[in-house]
Amino acid sequence: MRNMDFTEAMPILTQRLERGGVFLTVGGENPNTMTIGWCQLGTLWSIPICTVYVRPERYTYQFMEESRYFTVSVLPEEAKAITAYCGTKSGRDTDKIKDCGLTLRYGAGDAPFFAESEWALVCEKLYAQDLSPEHMVVPAPIEKYYDAAHGGWHRSYIGRVVEVYHR
């Protein structure tokens, strides 16, 4: 994988994120990964950022709380079985990375990402805040995401993109 400039990568990567196969990985030597559907790229505070969202019920949440760095990896479209597996299994119960035969690589801050990725962003966590119903201006778009079947409200994590890798 080669290191790329964020400004050059952002337009291509933004389109690629919409197709799925996106993983949030965190945790150094014994990392956990989860499939994510929500990820935003942009500029905030005049720096490149990536924002991800994790519910408190998820096993990955404790890793995010304890770690300074996280990664967002985008696997090739043909890795749909891995995406599905990591989206339905919990790291509490199984080692998803081992089960899927993924190869770990490490970026800044010993942040783990996958060698099999088309794209990998290494991010330094800068800010975290819980989403909450009282701050919703228009509730309709979120009704399908927040009910007893889905769990609690997400916490947003804004990370400064420190490395971008592309294969």
Q: Would you list the SSEs in sequence order as H and E? A: EHEEEEHEHHEEEE
Radius of gyration: 15 Å
End-to-end separation: 5 Å
Structure classification? alpha+beta
Compute the number of helices: 4
Main beta-sheet strand count, sense and barrel state:
8 strands, antiparallel
Please estimate the helix content: 10-25%
What best-fitting shape do the alpha-carbon axes yield?
globular
Low-confidence stretches: none
- The overall average pLDDT, rounded, is 93
Strand content: 35-45%
> How many individual β-strands?
10
Describe the structure.
- With 167 residues, this protein is an alpha+beta fold.
- 20% of the residues lie in helices and 37% in strands.
- The protein contains four helices and ten strands, in the order βαββββαβααββββ.
- The chain has helices at residues 6-17, 59-66, 80-88, 96-99, and strands spanning 2-3, 22-26, 32-35, 39-44, 47-54, 69-74, 104-106, 112-114, 119-130, 155-166.
- Strands 1, 2, 3, 4, 5, 6, 9 and 10 form an eight-stranded antiparallel beta sheet that branches. A two-stranded antiparallel sheet has the order 7-8.
- Strand 2 and strand 3 (32-35) form a beta hairpin.
- The model has no long low-confidence stretch (mean pLDDT 93).
